[in-house]
Structure formats: structure tokens, C-alpha cells
Design goal:
Layout lengths: L8 E4 L13 E4 H6 L3 H12 L2 H4 L2 E7 L5 H14 L13 E11 L2 H10 L4 E5 L11 E8 L7 H11 L4 E4 L11 E5 L8 E6 L3 H8 L4 H9 L6 E4 L6 H11 L7 E2 L20 H8 L5 E5 L6 E5 L3 E3 L1 H10 L5 H6 L4 E4 L5 H9 L3 E4 L3 H9 L5 E4 L3 E4 L7 H15 L3 H12 L4 E5 L5 H16 L7 E4 L2 E10 L2 E2 L6 E2 L4 E9 L8 E6 L6 E6 L1
Parallel strand pairs: 3-4, 3-5, 4-9, 10-11, 10-12, 15-16, 15-17
Antiparallel strand pairs: 1-7, 2-6, 5-6, 8-9, 12-13, 13-14, 17-18, 19-26, 20-21, 21-24, 22-23, 24-25, 25-26
Length: 540
């Protein structure tokens, strides 16, 4: 008896009002995706329905996640719905189907690698299954982000379209009998009842394509000499049981020759080993203590999906993210990629310090200040205006892809060390001597009640719009702070002239000190419109 084609079903559903994706996609507790009827299916269908049918014809899409709990379940549903979504809902004539899915082995692929694969295979987009640095496990969080054809996060126009579709969705298409083997590399083909070309799933090595990209960016021979040559440095990298672990082992240890004990927590786990996969001094405390012992010269930690990084020097010397991107910018031509491609511009988020501004001014390279969200950087890159960028939240990247890239940042730092033949601390101190030092502090207030956060922002808006606020003085000890400027940050996009408003309440102070005089500087305080309210102070 011949195998019958797999059946495609159209199933009724009811819309949810809360499926508006942010820059980081749609993030909810695992239990929402797992137990709310059709919650996962509704959002996936909304994404497929947002894509023009002509673009879907025989197209390629990419799927990968950070390995957190519910990752493989969600991937199976995405595969079933990708296969089915050639049959258009509500009796619209059939036009096309998603022709091929590229999926990381075991469903795991770092966010930078997803961006790389989308660009390499000219896919129309991809699903990134991650809640970034938020907790994993059955009681943790899960997220789905849609990246577009440039490899970067979907812009506002796309996420708004997805949200509008989600609010009126009445049915979704699925092929429930289709099951893909995520463990075995290679192609798997499935015949569907629509009798068109077979639907193909290809399980790919999540590391090799990304590693090959890095080989074309950095001088691997110089890095190998730094890590395993006669006078090699000792490094310690903490993958925090996230998706980046296999990449670290393959590239840093197996290929560049760093000893096996250089990399720890490299096996992805559904709950990230019970830790919060956030590369900062609190959550990577074990790494910090190890670095304080003096046995390693360079340390780094990554977040769950591998796009963020934290850099440490010997004895626990900490590099804040704003300084990190500034150091790379100041030494950018020690990286072969930029020797060949040149440098078009630098950019940072408005909540970062002005350390990068100092380098841009000295090198006469254009500097852009954007709202939070990598999509703003990606747009500048696509327009040929931007080469290197960074944000305050441990994210650094370049125009090789359209996502922040933790492992790229580590190799960039190692390239600087190999070129300058200095320690992390020496590089940083020389940088401060050359460009000046920008002091930076960030405070995160977790699990703030939404009503409290909204009230805080509303009250702050009243204060900063009061015409008498500018000029007010506040004295603390010997220092007197005078409000020089207060407004709500807005961004005028240099590519298309669009305006992005209401991004953060921004207050700038000038400071005077009595009785002795110190150099005048500007201090900035901002509060972002998020439930997890953050406060930043930057001495610019």
C-alpha cells in the first residue's frame, strides 16, 4: 500500500488581543504558549499570513532557537504550519507554499547564526525561538521573533501587520501528521495532499556556516597564535548553557587551539542550568570570581541565544558595553574585514554612553544615535551607512549580519589583543588616555508592576514638559546639578526621514563642584517605556 499524502487541515480559532510583537518578538511565560488554546498556532499563522503569497512560492525560511524549554515543540508546530500554508485560508485560490525550511540540528541555532543563514541562503526570513536573557524551563519564558530577508528583526511596519492579523484571525492551516527528525543532518521531504512539489526540511549543522563566515572576517592565524602559540594567553568563556556553547567549543577550542577548559557551560540546557542566561556581573558571578583569581587573561560570557557578551580582563577587570564597542571602533582596522570593506559609520543606542562618539569625532567617522532596537542599526547597514554599532545592554555587532553578535565581539577583542600585544586592562587604560573616559551606570528594576511603571512615566513626562524645569538646580554634597535639557527622545531616520517618537524621557544636567573646580561634564538620566524599567546615568 502506497503512503498517502499528508492531510492539510483548516482549523477554527479565536483571536487573542495581546500578540503584539516587540523588537525582541512575542515573549510570554511558557505556560501561555503551552496551555492557552491555539496561542502558539495563532501567532505563527499571523506571521505566515503577513508574508505576500508571491514571496512564499518555493521560498526558503530558517528556524532556530536557543534550546530553552518548549523549543522543540514549537519547531514541530512551525514545520507543520509552514507545510500547510501554501493552502490559503478562507477559500482563497491556492497560489504557493513555503518550499523549504532550514533548521539547526536539534532545533538549536544562535540568533547571529540564524541571521547569517538567512543571508547566505537568500531566505525570505526566519523564526528565532528565544526569550533572550530571560529565564528558561517550564516556569520560565518563551519567545518567537520573526526576522526578515536581511537577516534582522522585523521592522515596525511588519510587526504592526502581524499584530493586526492576529486580532482578527479566525482559522489557521496545519499539517498535524507531519513530524520532522531534528537530530539527523540532511534533507527530509514530505508529500502533501495539494499534489504540488514536496515540502522539504533540511537539518543543518548550526555551527559550520557561521564559523565559515567568521573565517572570512578575522585573521584566524593570528588568533590561533594568540590562543595556542608559544606566548599564548589564557582565556575563560562561559556559554551559560545557551545556544552559543557548541560554537565556542568548535571555534575557540577545536579550531583556534585554546585548551578544553577554556570553555565552560557549553552544553545547551532547557533551563540554562538553573541560571539566568544574562551576561552581566551578577549572573556570571562564577566567571567573575574565576577571573579575579588571576589564572586567566581574558574572560567572556554570553546570553542564552548568543547575541550578547560581557568582556573581562585579568583579575576581573570589567569592560562596560559602551567602552567595549568604543575600543573595537578605535582599533577596527586590525580586523581584516574592515581593511577590505572600509568603515561607513558608527552607531549606538541613545541610552549608551558617549564613548563611541569620542572615537567617531577623532576619526571623523559618522556617528548615529538611535533608539533601542537592532532594527534601527540594520536599516542603516542596508543603506550602506553603518559598519559597527553597540548598545548599553551588552550588545555589539557589525554589518556582517543584522543582529548583535556575542562571539563576533569576543573575536574582535581578541584581534585587538593580538594586534596591540597588550592586556585587556592596558588596552582600556590607553583608550581612556587617548579618547577620555566616560563613566556609565545602569540600574535595572525587575518585575515592576505595569501600573506603577506607567504612572512613573506619566509623572516624568509632566515634569520634563514643564517650562520651569530647565534651569532648576539640585545640590547634593559639594555638587550642584543644573537641568540643561529635558525632552522625550525622538529619532529622525536619515535613510527615509521617518520619525520615531516617545523613546525615552531624557534629562541632561550640567555639574559644578564647590569649593574646588572640576572639568564640566554632562550627566544624562533616562527612563524607558518598559515594564522592566531601567535607569541610566552617563557622564558624557
Amino acid at each position: 500500500m502506497e503512503d498517502r499524502p499528508l492531510q492539510v487541515l483548516h482549523l477554527e480559532t479565536a483571536p487573542y488581543p495581546d500578540q503584539r510583537p516587540s523588537t525582541g518578538g512575542l515573549r510570554k511565560s511558557v505556560r501561555v504558549f503551552q496551555y492557552k488554546r491555539n496561542y502558539l498556532q495563532n501567532f505563527i499563522q499571523s506571521i505566515f499570513s503577513s508574508i505576500d503569497l508571491r514571496e512564499r512560492q518555493g521560498c526558503t525560511m530558517v528556524v532556530g532557537g536557543d534550546g530553552r524549554y518548549f523549543n522543540t515543540t514549537a519547531i514541530q508546530v512551525i514545520v507543520q504550519m509552514a507545510a500547510a500554508n501554501g493552502l490559503v485560508l478562507s477559500s482563497v485560490p491556492y497560489l504557493s507554499q513555503v518550499g523549504r525550511l532550514l533548521i539547526g540540528q536539534n532545533g538549536i541555532m544562535s540568533t547571529p547564526a540564524v541571521s547569517s543563514v538567512i543571508r547566505k541562503f537568500k531566505a525570505i526570513g526566519g523564526f528565532v525561538l528565544t526569550a533572550s536573557h530571560n529565564p528558561g524551563g517550564p516556569d520560565g519564558e518563551f519567545g518567537i521573533k520573526f526576522n526578515i530577508a536581511n537577516g534582522g528583526p522585523a521592522p515596525t511596519a511588519v510587526t504592526d501587520k502581524i499584530f493586526q492579523i492576529s486580532r482578527s484571525l479566525e482559522e489557521y492551516a496545519i499539517c498535524p501528521e507531519l513530524t520532522v527528525d531534528l537530530t539527523t543532518l540532511g534533507k527530509q521531504s514530505f508529500d502533501l495532499e495539494n499534489k504540488f512539489k514536496p515540502f522539504t526540511v533540511e537539518i543543518v549543522d548550526p555551527v559550520e556556516s557561521y564559523a565559515n563566515m567568521l573565517r572570512n572576517i578575522f585573521d584566524f592565524a593570528a588568533l590561533k597564535e594568540l590562543l595556542s602559540g608559544q606566548n599564548h594567553i589564557r582565556i575563560r568563556l562561559d556559554a551559560m548553557n545557551g545556544a552559543i556553547g557548541p560554537y565556542v567549543k568548535k571555534i575557540l577550542c577545536e579550531e583556534l587551539g585554546s585548551p578544553a577548559n577554556s570553555a565552560i557551560n557549553c552544553i545547551p540546557q532547557e533551563d540554562f542550568g538553573g541560571r539566568l542566561p544574562d551576561p552581566n556581573l551578577t549572573n556570571a558571578a562564577d566567571l567573575l570570581e574565576t577571573m579575579k583569581s588571576g589564572q586567566f587573561d581574558f574572560g567572556a560570557a554570553f546570553d542564552g541565544d548568543g547575541d550578547r557578551n560581557m568582556i573581562l580582563g585579568k583579575n576581573g577587570f570589567f569592560i562596560n558595553p559602551s567602552d567595549s564597542v568604543a575600543v573595537i571602533a578605535a582599533n577596527i582596522f586590525c580586523i581584516p574585514y574592515f581593511q577590505h570593506m572600509g568603515v561607513r559609520g558608527f552607531a549606538r543606542t541613545m541610552s549608551s554612553s558617549a564613548a563611541l562618539d569620542n572615537v567617531a569625532k577623532a576619526t571623523k567617522i559618522q556617528l548615529y544615535e538611535t533608539p533601542t532596537g537592532w532594527k534601527f542599526f540594520g536599516k542603516l547597514m542596508d543603506a550602506g551607512r553603518l559598519s559597527l554599532c553597540g548598545e548599553e545592554n551588552f550588545g555589539t555587532g557589525a554589518d556582517h549580519i543584522r543582529e548583535k553578535d556575542g562571539l563576533w565581539a569576543v573575536l574582535a577583542w581578541l584581534s585587538v589583543l593580538a594586534f596591540r600585544k597588550q592586556s585587556v586592562e592596558e588596552v582600556m587604560i590607553d583608550h581612556w588616555k587617548t579618547y577620555g573616559r566616560n563613566y556609565y551606570t545602569r540600574y535595572d528594576y525587575e518585575d515592576v508592576e505595569i501600573d506603577v511603571a506607567v504612572d512613573l512615566m506619566l509623572d516624568l513626562e509632566v515634569i520634563i514638559t514643564d517650562k520651569t524645569f530647565v534651569g532648576q538646580k539640585i545640590t547634593v554634597g559639594e555638587k550642584t546639578y543644573a537641568v540643561e535639557k529635558a525632552d522625550n527622545f525622538e529619532y529622525s531616520d536619515p535613510v527615509d526621514g521617518s520619525i520615531t517618537r516617545n523613546q525615552a524621557a531624557l534629562v541632561l544636567f550640567s555639574v559644578s563642584v564647590e569649593p574646588r573646580q572640576e572639568p564640566r561634564y554632562i550627566s544624562t538620566w533616562t527612563a524607558t517605556r518598559k515594564t522592566k524599567t531601567s535607569y541610566y546615568t552617563t557622564h558624557r
